[in-house]
Design brief:
By secondary structure, the protein is mainly alpha-helical. The protein has 20 helices and 5 strands. The strands form 2 sheets. Strands 1-2-3 form a 3-stranded antiparallel β-sheet, with no helix packed on it. A two-stranded antiparallel ribbon has the order 4-5. Helix 4 runs antiparallel to helix 10, helix 5 runs antiparallel to helix 6 and helix 6 packs across helix 14. The protein is globular. The two termini are 23 Å apart.
Length: 505
Amino acid sequence: MAGKDTLVLPAADISTDGDCNPTDTSNDEDGKPNTETMQLKKEISLLNGISLIVGNMIGSGIFVSPKGVLIYSASYGLSLVIWALGGIFSVIGALCYAELGTTIKKSGASYAYILEAFGGFIAFIRLWTSLLIIEPTSQAVIAITFANYLVQPAFPSCEPPYTASRLIAAACICILTFINCAYVKWGTRVQDVFTYAKLIALIVIIIAGIVRLCQGYTNHFVDAFEGSSWNAGDISLALYSALFSYSGWDTLNFVTEEIKNPERNLPLSIAISMPVVTVIYILTNIAYYVVLDMNAILASDAVAVSFAEETLGYMKWSIPIAVALSCYGGLNASIIAASRLFFVGSREGHLPDMLSMIHIQRFTPVPALLFNCAMALIYLAVEDVFQLINYYSFSYWFFVGLSIAGQVYLRWKEPDRPRPLKLSLFFPIVFCLCTIFLVAVPLYSDTVNSLIGIGIALSGVPVYFMGVYLPESKRPPIIGKLLGFLTRITQLACYCVVTEMDPVD
């Protein structure tokens, strides 16, 4: 799908090296010429990496609807066990991704790993599913949730106006897109600030729960396992709900090429983030269980708000704001990750060339960010966008499991490949076996939506055949001309050039 017709930008800023790779030849602050290859810069530190993972994992779910686990487990005791098991399982998956990320030093997470292990076709289907449904739908939902909770204090007894919520959600997406287009550091700083904000809010909830616990409010934990549902189907659905809340641990793998010292900082960010999130989730649920009885939790549309009404008094207004801040940080992390996925897909020839361009001065993937923004805005116009999110549960776990199966396959295919971090094969094998279960659960419990999701994924097959598999000479000429025109327009409008891979990779 790559268009070959590109425009040469002014020679005062951009020239090419001996291999026709774009090179920055502008002067630096000291008047000396720069000879940097046009690549995304390594500007993500260890702290930024931790903020990206924690910020994306802790979304609105823990504030709004942590009741999914409780519904199926039917007891406080069993639900806490399932939250802990979900955390352990997610830690195993994240550690497997730490090995993959330090072995295959490409951005793009599962797309890059599937491409390396199983080739272009399956990787394209993974990319197509993300482009068409996963990324824009999830971002639209997060933005709408942000807007609803931001304006909730102004509409305490009714639903916020539909149009107002959608316009605020659109403004949120556009502002974050602009921030990430401007500078990578702006995006990571926003992520840091909003991650701190949501952690402070959760710490307030946890402390309030501990205070109540110390005051003797322990009656909800008497016979904590009484009434537990030990049915295998219920336990599996409870675990599935917990794992959905833990999703996002692969966020940093989408930006591997922008991490400073990735061999150290990628696994270390994961090793720090995962226990932090697991402990926070368990302690937050304990706090909820201390204050609210089971019926109150199951009946609440926003558990944290109900908790605040019981414990925070005049400060109860702060929790809707905290939910909005949490959504804002999660949306920022999602925009960063999704734009890099489209960027890498374009660089690999699976999307038009224009999406693999970066700004010649700011070194940000402006076209990919704008494309991601446009897709999210389109899905904001879908009135029942929340229904669309049900279509990709099957695809999500299938491709995560497939990428880790690729880890096992590459161990056999390329045993001598350098691996700065090398886990025991026990971990990826256990994870792959568990993902078979996670793929089967939605097929069993939500068959229609799962089949629709499979249909969406398979719709990429003819697109792959026409846009990637066929040689350019056999494609309809109009496609090449249109892509060439769009590429030139993109270069002029965004002041961008096609990036290059790091030669050491």
